Every structure is written in structure tokens, then in C-alpha cells.
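Give me C-alpha cells for this 169-residue protein.
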Amino acid sequence: MRHILVALILTMWPALACAALDKPLEPGAKVAFLGMTFIDLSTEGTYNGVRADETARLELMESAARDRFVQEGFVMLSTAPVAAELASTVNPADCNGCELHMGERLGADYVLVGEVRKISNLILSVELVLRDVNSGEILRGIAVDIRSNTDDSWLRGIRYILKNHFFKS
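Here you go.
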């Protein structure tokens, strides 16, 4: 009997893990958006370093995400009170919970972080994660691969995440 129970739990585990990612978000909640981090894993990046167009695209994506959250009725908080800590954090999306501490100091209900990983000039991955500041629970989180390194492809990736995962109806 015990083996059947364990098998049942293991079978249902993926559904249970994803259940939290569909919880309704609190209308008017305060969101601390700590930005998107660009991680260049490509050979091109190794040889040529940071590209101005990719830095501009990152800002474009951040703006699109902020705008969509405001459009959906969320309050986007200023990160000025944690600017020094944020500037010294290499990647807020991967900092052992430091994003939750910064969100708490800002008085946020939710903290939003993201990454763009460049595998090559053709293959990139966009990830966005929204966490509850009090519980640390991931409320929304997904990564999508995009093809092409253009403004349009980057925006298409972030808009897809927001439309089909964060704010799906």
C-alpha cells in the first residue's frame, strides 16, 4: 500500500508543482522589478565583450515588462533604496534569495527578476520569475527560447511570457 501511495504522489508531483504557478495574483500588488541580467555564453561574447545593441535590448525588454505590469494594474516600485546592493549583485535572478531581501526592504508584495542567456547570435533564452516576497514562493516563472538577435525577437520573447504565462486569461 505504501508503494502505491508513493507512486501516486510521484505521478502527481509535476501537476502539484505547477499548481502554484496558476494562483491568481493580488490586484494592485506592489512589485519590485530588479531587472534583467544578460549572460553571454557565446563565443562571440568571449572574444568581443559587451555589445551596445544587446545592452539596449535588455533595457527595451525591461521597459516592456514594466509597462505590462502597470497595464495590468500593479504598482511598480522604485529600486532606488536598494540601488547600491543591486549594483553590486551580479545576477539578482541567481543570488541565493537576495532578491527577496531587497523586495522586503522596498515594501514589495512581489519581486520580479529575469535573465537573457545568449547561446549564440541565433539562439537565446529569456527567463522571467515572479516571487512572493513574504513566502518566497514562485508565483510565475518560465523560460522561452528565441531565435535571432534583434529587437523584435527579444520583445517577442518577453511579450510571449507575459501574455501566455504571467497574464493569461
